[in-house]
Design brief:
By secondary structure, the chain is an alpha/beta fold. It has 14 helices and 18 strands. Strands 7, 8, 9, 10, 11, 12, 15, 16 and 18 form a 9-stranded mixed beta sheet that branches. A 7-stranded parallel beta sheet has the order 3-2-1-4-5-6-17, with helices on both faces. α1 packs across α13 (339-356). It is globular, with a radius of gyration of 20 Å. Bound molecules: NADPH dihydro-nicotinamide-adenine-dinucleotide phosphate (NDP).
Length: 397
């Protein structure tokens, strides 16, 4: 029925390739393209299906992208390379008449800052072209928006407080490693904290606000308030929200390494001269850190990501907690990738499936919470991510 082009052959690309291959009735032809062809070939071999073809592409180069899109003529691009490529891929999709989906919002390479405005600016062009662009369709962002939309649709008359809680209680056995692209990850977690309260953004120092939160099947873990991209779209699309925050767990060992990395200048995005050559410290750091795609084999434990929501139902205050837990070992057994890649790749496949089958097809540029959450929620457990609800519980927040 649909031809899909996956761009990016990292941990998430590996999961997406496995997952689209598992739905042959929807995705009839699959092309996996990335900067390094050998990584695409290794994934195609691991998937074991002769339906995954491979290609080399530099997605920073619009002309290369357009040539690839014109020759393969996909119905949709699932972009799981890096956020730096969001705009070039969106433009190439517009030029060739292809739907678009990604899992992380655009950031300029030289400014460690993410905002939706660059991508939202393409709304009219996608609408006029009759094309759908689905932004941030991983777990968080992605499922976090779907969970919020589902809660607002089925369990509340008004939602007032939203706390997205993200715990990785897994252990990969390395002193320091990041669970997805180190450059993007370190840029994200070293930013100032930011949350929404009473109609305005409140900024904090990095990791200034923290408290233990109890995660299902895991127990209490110190959780840190950080800024995360879906807060921007969720407060826009749910204007009844009086407060919206994002919490992520970090171990002491991770935070100590992070502090040292920052103190010695290795988290910097500013180019420096080294032996006559310009290098960007954080890119050099990425080259020496463990490849996140290699962590899966020894990863034990699980992730737990969910939304804790407070609001009003039938005139009474109500609390609600919806979450998914995902075991690293199970993710690795099925796809050869750890749970952080798995929980990102599965929603990306589901979003693409809903787009090409017409359920999430709407000309324009949209975040996940703007679509009907029900078909997405039905598909999540069928493709490896069961979810659970708790009503009227102590949210701790
Ligand atoms: P990786 O770094 O493991 O993989 C990225 C892949 O993209 C690599 O194969 C890389 O190629 C390729 N790539 C990078 N630049 C280009 C380019 N210019 N042209 C073509 N290919 C390129 O990252 P992950 O798989 O861990 O993450 C993928 C995306 O998912 C990221 O954007 C990340 O932010 C996002 N993400 C979203 C989450 C969510 O819940 N929403 C959670 C986790 C991640 P090469 O091998 O040559 O370097």
């Amino acid at each position: 029925m649909a031809k899909v082009l996956i761009i990016g052959a990292g941990g998430v690309g590996r999961v997406v390739a496995h997952k689209v291959s598992s739905v042959p009735e929807v995705f009839t032809e699959i092309l996996l393209a990335s900067r390094t062809l050998s990584k695409c070939e290794a994934i195609a071999k691991a998937v074991g299906s002769d339906r995954v073809n491979t290609a080399q592409v530099n997605a920073d180069d619009r002309h290369q992208l357009i040539a690839l899109l014109k020759s393969f003529r996909p119905d949709i691009v699932i972009h799981v390379a890096l956020p730096y490529q969001d705009l070039t891929i969106m433009e190439a999709c517009l030029e060739t008449g292809v739907h678009y989906l990604d899992t992380a919002n655009y950031e300029p390479p030289d400014v460690p800052k993410f905002e939706y405005r660059w991508q939202w600016a393409y709304h009219d062009q996608f609408r006029q072209a009759g094309l759908t662009a689905i932004l941030g369709c991983g777990f968080d962002p992605g499922v976090s928006g779907v969970f919020t939309a589902y809660a607002a649709k089925h369990h509340f008359d008004e939602i007032h407080c939203l706390d997205i809680v993200d715990c990785n209680a897994g252990d990969h056995g390395k002193p320091f490693a990041t669970n997805f692209n180190p450059e993007i990850n370190i840029r994200e977690v070293t930013q100032k904290g930011k949350y929404w309260e009473n109609g305005k953004w409140i900024e904090t120092e990095p990791h200034q606000i923290h408290q233990p939160l109890t995660y299902p099947n895991i127990g209490p873990r110190e959780s840190y308030l950080i800024y995360h991209e879906e807060l921007e779209s969720l407060v826009k699309h749910f204007p009844t929200l009086k407060r919206a925050r994002f919490w992520m767990t970090f171990g002491q060992e991770y935070l100590t390494h992070l502090r040292v990395i920052q103190n010695i200048g290795m988290a910097s995005v500013k180019p420096i001269l080294y032996e006559g050559r310009e290098i960007v410290p954080i890119q050099f750091l990425k080259a020496v850190l463990p490849d996140p795609a290699s962590l899966g084999e020894h990863y034990a434990g699980e992730t737990s990501i969910g939304c804790r929501i407070r609001g009003i139902r039938n005139g009474k205050e109500k609390t609600y907690y919806i979450y998914n837990n995902c075991r690293h070992q199970d993710a690795f057994k099925e796809t050869g990738a750890q749970a952080v890649s798995y929980t990102t790749g599965v929603p990306a496949m589901i979003g693409a499936m809903l787009c090409v089958t017409g359920k999430w097809k709407a000309p324009g540029v949209y975040n996940t919470e703007e679509f009907d959450p029900d078909p997405f929620m039905e598909l999540l457990p069928l493709h490896g991510l069961p979810w659970h609800e708790l009503h009227d519980v102590d949210l701790e927040l």
